[in-house]
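Weekly sync notes, structure subgroup
Attendees: PM, AL, DS (notes)

Item 1: joint prediction request from the bench team. They want all two components modeled as one assembly rather than separately. Inputs as received:
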Amino acid sequence: MRSPAVRMFRSLEGLFCVYKPAGVHWKLVRDTIETNLLKGVNATSAQPLPHEVRFLSNPNNKPEAAGGLALRAAAVPVLSKHPLVTGPEFQHIKVGVGHLLDASSSGVFVLAVGNGNRTLNDLYRTRTTREYTLECEFGTATHDFTQMGRVVERSTYDHITLDKMERVISMLEGANQKALRMYSSVDMSSQEAYELAVKGLLGPDGKSVPILTGLRCIHFQPPNFTLEVQCLNETQKYLRKVVHEMGLELRSTAVCKGVRRTRDGPFTLQDALTRHHWTAADVMQAIQQYRSKKRSKKGSRTLTDKAVLQTSEETLSLSGKRS
Amino acid sequence: MALSCVRLCPRHMGPALHVCGYATLSRASRPQEKSSGGPVFQYVGEHRQPTHKVFVWGFSFTGALGIPSFVVPDSGRKKPRKYQFTPYRLETAEQISSAACGYGFTLMASSTKDVTKLWGMGLNKDSQLGFQRTQHSRHKSYDYVLEPSPVALPLIQPQQTRVVQVSCGRAHSLVLTDQEGVFSMGNNAYGQCGRTIVEEEVYSGSHVIHRIEGFSSRVVQVACGQDHSLFLTDTGKVFSCGWGADGQTGLGHHSISSCPVEVGGDLGGVEVQQISTYGDCSLAVSRDGQLFGWGNSEYRQLTLATESTQVRRSDVQGCRNELNIGGDTYWKPYRFVNGLTCFIGLKCLIPLMSLHGIMTYGNIQYLDLQKIKKQHLLRLFLCMKICN
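Output from the run, pasted for the record:
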């Protein structure tokens, strides 16, 4: 007979994503979530204490009663099961994290609870891409490529036009496409490579250098501009470095004001929970949504002999492909 | 329960994380103010234009690309490069201001007052690049010029005159200077060079560079079709000479004209701003934005004018090159649409209406970039994008 706390914990197992605010270390986010989940799980209505039959001696009996002690049976609560004695039912919940975000970046941050950690592992062994929005500014170059760093150089940017920017972007895209082909472990002149490329599955398996599968400028108003990036195996510092290098290519300097992840695999900004919704109830709702989405995707696939891993791989890489 | 939560956090935090609590990270420096000290570097000026670089691509075996190693490789292990698919930088002695591609040859001109102002490379079997003296004999001329070689123009004042524009046709070329008029060289079998046709003239190894006479005023633009030439004067009149079997000379007849004659038809009294021609079709844009066309319309380059009630010559007995695939030939210029500038490909017309409006006529299945003027390349890429 499972306690309500355990039942609630079972319904909490799965994957969900939160919106990590900028300026906060990811560990604090994870710890806060874990704390809130513990609060929620341990706050479920306590079961009534079990009773056991104890034979209690009657203190009012006269001691000179003949033949021994007079005992009476009484049902007393089992004190060893009292919550103040045992402590809370759950003292630790395994909350795992997906792809990390550094302290000054914000955006979609995937977490997994309990058994969801196993799914998380499988999810990240398949090739998923992440999408970022980079807010950048021309005119300064700093030592750590962020706006808060020490200024290394300042330069003019009047000569930069959108077509020059597009030229640099297409050059970067070309280099990244070449890297994509190079790091995929198939022979380029084979039929297998063609079939993979047609499905959009051509790319590195596992670790590789960071590769941008898509890059475009969505807003251009000097000195500010915004880039949208889809990437593999990246770090946020690498993305800021890309912005810095783009500034150099344009014969000026550029710095990244903000990195914001808008998608991580199948999880988008729509699904992300904001800070006020980091409670157990909201997390449970998010996990239910994820589960129903997974169920509907599984149901729509008619290939029953293929492993779940492979179908999830295709789904994820299809969703990760640049539209 | 509260106790357990407090104990939870320090257990998992590393020693380095004790500093930052739930507040934002301490900033190393404030966001930079614009007025803070330090120099501001300027690497590129605000109005900088791309430098006058020359890039070549296309078929290289005639030497038209000007890179000898494509035709005759430097080392024995390399193979000759027949097609150069991507733009390849060509180093030039001077900054080139005008360039033109003909059928297997290229002319480049620089607007300098030096003696050497014109370079040519490629096919020279009709002396379209002038006389290119061979190394061993001063009476012989090279048939194929593999490197940009200077072309000597017979100028009266070579150190005062500048070359304004060059234009190349199938086997002839025209050079426009600012003070001394138009010079033509190459094949003159149909009078396209603007001089009297000499029967059985040998064009290979010819020294003839003719200065064209017969214009009413100063010529400001030249254009070469396949075997005909068009000239635009500063008063807005268009002159033409050369092969006219498809009416591309626009002179009202289908025969050859060996000296420049003014083009009439709808162009009479109109001030033309720009002319363009390629193959056997010609276009002119007037100063008030009207577009006129004449010549071959096999691929329906000029079909927009067929709805009008203009008279057109439908009997084609005199024509030689026409294939009669349902097209018409227009032997006089007809006005049909409004336009600003126009470009002509081998089988299609691309009038550039405005920066955003582009219309094309005719068959666009084969658009050879090699044959299109380099200075209009950016605009033409715009056209190509929209065509495709």
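Discussion: Confidence is low (pLDDT under 50) at residues 302-314 of chain A.
Action: AL to compare against the crosslinking data before next sync.
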